[in-house]
Amino acid sequence: MRTKQRLLALALITLLLSLAVAACGDNTATPVPATTAAATKAATTAAAATTAGATTAAGTTAAATTAGAATTTAASGKTVTIRIGTGDSGDGLAPYNQTIEAFKKVYPGIDIKVEPVTDSDYYGSLLTQVASGKAPDLIFIGDDEVADFVKKGAYEDLTPYINGTAVPGVKLDTSVFLPNTLQPGQQAGKQYLFPKDFSPVAVYYNKELLKAAGVAEPTENWTWDDFKAAAQKLTVKDSSGKVTQYGAQLTAAWQRGFEAIAFTQGATLIAADGSKYSGFLDSEASAKALTLVADLYRNGYAAPPSDINKWKGGNDNFANGTAALLIDGRWPQATLLKNPKLTNNIGVVGLPKGTQKANAINWGGFGIYSKSANKDAAWKVLSFFVSPDGGGQFFKDWGLTPLKSIADKNTNALDKVWTAQTEFFKPITANFTPYWNSAGAKELGDALTKVITDPKADISATLKDAATKADKALKDKIDSNK
Questions:
Q1: CA nearest to 96, candidates 411, 386, 292, 343
Q2: Are residues 192 and 211 in the same domain?
Q3: Is 429 a member of any domain?
Q4: Predicted TM-score of the model (pTM)
Q5: Residues 473, 482: Cα–Cα separation, whole Å
Q6: For residue 426, is it within any domain?
Q7: CA–CA separation, 196 vs 382, rounded Å?
Q8: How far is CA 454 from the centre of its chain?
Q9: pLDDT by residue for the chain (482 residues), tens digit each?
């Protein structure tokens, strides 16, 4: 679970899981680019084209917008090309191509070039382009790097674009987005990125296994005590005492998964000003959350990680029917539903309640490069890509949409559960510091690994040590960047 290794995702929360999603070609949520340093090992559409007269996200009609595009082209004397940097590739580019085709009918004077970034160091590659002044006009990243990219001046403040002052007649009504899905793209109250897709953390359950054990299907009102009781009852052993079915499959040393659980206990892992982890990462609430996780593993109710160094532990117990509950994001849903053992046999419910009902988002989004030579055109592309009548039509089949109107039309009962979790999102740790991946994520991952693999590890002491080390790493980063 090392930070740099985790940054393989959305180029690898975009390549690994994004490729998995693309391979499915169905309604699986595209994993967000690097959604946490640990989650980044997993990467990060079809509908009718926008018709003339259809209202666009810019708050104008397609016909009126087309006229504006023609004027822009005539004034410049040449077609403008907007580059989009993304970690998506292969079949995952299908929604981009469909959106571009629809976009050209509205803005014939703007070409779009999608540039998949396939370098194993996705963020490093993008930051090199930023430093050289040659980054794409639109840049796609995960929520765990927003603060760092903004601090480095990579993104344009979108406030004047949203309200229509930067590009007259082309504004964006932000009320089209689901609750709390804009927040990961914000810094200091300003919007720098808009979401492409997202995923909460929730619980899958095997209906048949619950029924066989006499366990009622969980509801949104269930608690962690209910979860633990169910996991215990759902754990099955043979005559020799060997476990043949685990009650649950957990998220191992995946930091974002733990954050979500910690939030339900009322914990925050860093000070609100991003200055320290001590008192937060090692708080009583954080220790309570980690104790909950540790007890499930130590009591044998949760399947031990098959490889602690893999994202989420590398387990497939739920998929092969040897675990009844699974804590995860929405990404594996489509694949699970194709599993003969699970078809028509899967339920989804939000995380259990602790001291509060809470969740953590996994998110990827687009923003405008601050040194783009064509910011007006880039805004037209961006606003179209994230609009219900533009890219929202196409990306909805490749990820969980952040757009209300499209989500409301989704008749998939499981997706309704995922979408409902947006109400409970709490700001993730990476929102408060640009140094999460370099100072904080590793230390938390190490603490999770120690507690999960060592039954005798003292939880409070382990978290205190992690907070102390994270504070030192954080201070070093802050001092070196003064």
A1: 386
A2: no
A3: no
A4: 0.86
A5: 15
A6: no
A7: 10
A8: 29
A9: 333 343 344 443 443 334 333 333 344 433 443 433 333 333 332 332 332 233 333 333 333 333 344 334 434 558 999 999 999 999 999 999 999 999 999 999 999 999 999 888 999 999 999 999 999 999 999 999 999 999 999 999 999 999 999 999 999 999 999 999 999 999 999 999 999 999 999 999 999 999 999 999 999 999 999 999 999 999 999 999 999 999 999 999 999 999 999 999 999 999 999 999 999 999 999 999 999 999 999 999 999 999 999 999 999 999 999 999 999 999 999 999 999 989 899 999 999 999 999 999 999 999 999 999 999 999 999 999 999 999 999 999 999 999 999 999 999 999 999 999 999 999 999 999 999 999 999 999 999 999 999 999 999 999 999 999 999 999 999 999 98
Q: Residues 406, 392: contact at Cβ < 8 Å?
A: yes
The count of residues in the chain is: 482
For residue 163, count other CB atoms closer than 10 A to its CB: 11
Determine, yes or no, domain membership for 317.
Answer: yes
Buried b (16+ CB within 10 A) or exposed e, 189-224: eebbbbbbbbbbbbbbbbeebbeebebeebeeebeb
Number of separate domains in the chain: 2
286 and 238 in one domain? Answer: yes
- Position of tokens 């990060």? 44
Domain with residue 126: its CATH number is: 3.40.190.10
Q: 89-92: long-range contacts at Cβ-Cβ below 8 A with a sequence spacing of 24 or more?
A: 89/15, 89/18, 89/19, 89/22, 89/116, 89/118, 90/19, 90/22, 91/22, 91/23, 91/25, 92/14, 92/18, 92/19, 92/21, 92/22, 92/30, 92/398
Token pair belonging to 35:
């959604």
Residue 364 tokens, joined? 């990827």
Q: Is 198 helix (H, G, I), strand (E, B) or coil?
A: strand
H helix count then E strand count, the chain: 18, 12
Same domain for 347 and 367, yes or no, is no
- Bridge partners, 83 (sequence order): 113
Side chain identity at 297, as an amino acid letter? Y
